[in-house]
Amino acid sequence: MMAVHKVVVTNVSGLKAKYGPEYARLRTSLAKLVRADLKRGLRTRVVAIDSPAVMKRLGGKPVSSVNDQRGAKEAVDAIYGHYQPDYILILGAPDIVPHIDLANPLHGTPDDDGDIVVPSDVPYACAAGWSRQPQDFMGPSRVVGRLPDLAGADEPSYLQRLIDTAARHRPMPRKDYARHFAISAKVWIRSTAESMDNLFGPGAIVLTAPPKGPRWPKRALAPRIHFINCHGDTCSPKFFGEHPTNRFVDAHDAVHLPTRISKGAVVAAECCYGAELYEPAKAQGQAGIANTYLGEGAIGFLGSTTIAYGPSEGQGQADLICQYFIDAVRRGASLGRAALEARQRFVAQFSHTDPADLKTAVQFLLLGDPSVHPVDPTPHAFSRSKTVRQAPKGLVHSETRTFRRERLARTGTNLTRTLGAAVPSKDAIPKPVRRFLIKAAEESGMLNPTFKSYRVTFPSAQRRPRSMNTLRRPKRLIFAALGSLGIPTRGARISAIIATVEGDKIVHVRRVHSR
Amino acid sequence: MIVEGVVIRRRINVGSKSEHDAALLVSEEGTFKLRRSGGHPFSDPDVQALVGLRIRAEGFVTAGQFIMTHYAVVDDETG
């Protein structure tokens, strides 16, 4: 069997139910995409996960409905097992191929995070089987992206546009991605400035809201890298700035984007709900910012489906995963590989993920064709030599993508086998630790803190490498004091003090600067 | 759906990028962040003006929020 490099996963009966006879237009666009992929060296197969005959051939089962999350996950696993493709493209909004609703590790206290679940595409990127627990998906190894149509749409022109954009894209020189458009809520300027310094060098420009936005001139939006660190909310086509504290202004607005986005733009948005694919009818007919960017010719969008986390100063959570994604894109990675490397690089820095890090790892998803390379990767000089160019036909066949997939799979496997995660527990807080947290909360100006307990769990001994089994593995608990500040200290609003405890000792403690 | 409840003000999503003072609708169906369809999700003066009042609102629930399309203040004496 000839290798299949890319699989487009979709629910054809779902698309037909949504678009009726207009579905034929999508078939035409998909055929063009398959031809375009072949010209760039990719053999692409479109797989209907709702087809009993197709799924049986692939060793899997068809989904029972467009809402069948477990069925969709297991179908993708079967597809991957059969083809081992380099890329998996999920075609459709969540009303065609669902997100997987994972438990939110931060849900459950009076001050808690309002998301009951975390809709995620990360399980599709993991070899781990079906689960609703985010800690089971810390070792992604597959390159996955989603090209969404509009949730609730009744005609397919939007999705056609996205497919055609992906088919037409040609990688561009790195210099075409040298400039950036970065906006930040003014209260988070220090954190955003650090992110941009890391990506574009010291002194990289960051625009803030206030005072600027949301009507950005075309020349401001012209750069092909967009980095956005603002507030967002569910069912909202806007992102918001903030300054002073609790004073919110419009920073970015989907209604002001048409005709102003450069073709091939890549966006990383740290904002809460930045990549939420809501039904435009819920926002008076206005599609969200992510949908709008893609509809206007942006080639990729990394964003969160839910409430996101990150410090007002320094770097953490959303800052990091967005930064890692843009870094990989600019170094020539495909969109999908950039997203995978960003997730792996993010979780690899931890011995165990705390609840905010755990949520971060699963809430960010890639909207875009994962096989697209925004930046033309620079080939090795020898690959252009006479010897290679004139080698007998079929003798030299580059497999560097295969080698990269092997490396990514190895990294994902290692993470799955070794990374710990903090899961909610009912462990009582030891009195000395509670006194410490109360004192720290008082010193930080935190009012009436509430407390949460977590237990750090590691993969079972059977999955861990032998070298780790010799390490001591005491019970590791995390206790967090959460609360709002009465008086800001040194310009930072501190909202959580997190103590990691082993035995009777606090072995690690940190303050999380709230956004 | 139609929901009736009391509007309170509380800081929510503490520690996240969405931490802010919000109007919440406390009802038998649950407690939701309260928004007006088309209104500012973080600081809508029309919603803030409802804090302390009992309202009956029509709208939909999404991600723990109640986004209302119509609402009316309920007079306690007439119900």
CATH architecture group name of the largest domain in chain A? 3-Layer(aba) Sandwich
Provide the low-confidence segments of chain A as ranges: 487-494
In sequence order, what are the helices and strands of chain B, one letter per element?
EEEHEE
Annotation, overall tally of beta strands of chain B: 5
Report how far the terminal alpha carbons of chain A are from each other: 52 Å
Sheet with the most strands, sense and barrel status of chain A: 6 strands, mixed
Strand order of the largest sheet of chain B: 1-2-3-5-4
Instruction: Supply Rg of chain A.
Output: 23 Å
Task: Tell me, rounded to a whole number, the average pLDDT of chain A.
Answer: 91
Low-confidence stretches of chain B: none
Range of helix content of chain B: under 10%
Largest interface: A-B, 42 and 25 residues
Q: What is the typical, i.e. mean, pLDDT of chain B?
A: 90
What proportion of the residues of chain A form beta strands (DSSP E)?
Answer: 15-25%
Q: Structural class of the secondary elements of chain A?
A: alpha/beta
**CA radius of gyration of chain B:** 12 Å
Distance between the termini of chain B: 19 Å
Q: Could you say how many structural domains of chain A there are in total?
A: 3
Explained architecture:
- The complex is a heterodimer of chains A (515) and B (79).
- Chain A is of the alpha/beta class and 515 residues long.
- Chain A has helices at residues 12-19, 23-39, 52-57, 69-83, 157-168, 189-200, 218-221, 289-295, 318-330, 335-348, 355-363, 386-389, 400-418, 431-443, 466-469; strands at 6-10, 44-48, 87-91, 100-103, 117-120, 144-147, 180-185, 207-209, 225-229, 238-242, 248-253, 266-269, 300-304, 352-353, 364-367, 420-424, 446-457, 476-485, 494-502, 505-513.
- Chain A has three domains: 6-147, Rossmann fold, CATH 3.40.50; 171-374, Rossmann fold; 420-514.
- Chain A has 15 helices and 20 strands.
- In chain A, α2 (23-39) runs parallel beside α5 (157-168).
- The radius of gyration of chain A is 23 Å and the shape is globular.
- Chain B has a domain at 1-6 and 27-53 and 65-79.
- Chain B has one helix and five strands.
- A five-stranded mixed β-barrel of chain B has the order 1-2-3-5-4.
- In chain B, a hairpin with a 2-residue loop joins β4 (54-62) and β5.
- Classes of the chains: A alpha/beta (515), B mainly beta (79).
- Chain A binds chain B through residues 106, 111-116, 231-236, 240, 242, 246-248, 270-273, 278, 282-284, 306-310, 318, 356, 482-484, 493, 495-496, 512, 514-515, and chain B through 11-21, 33, 35, 37-38, 40-43, 60, 62-65, 67.
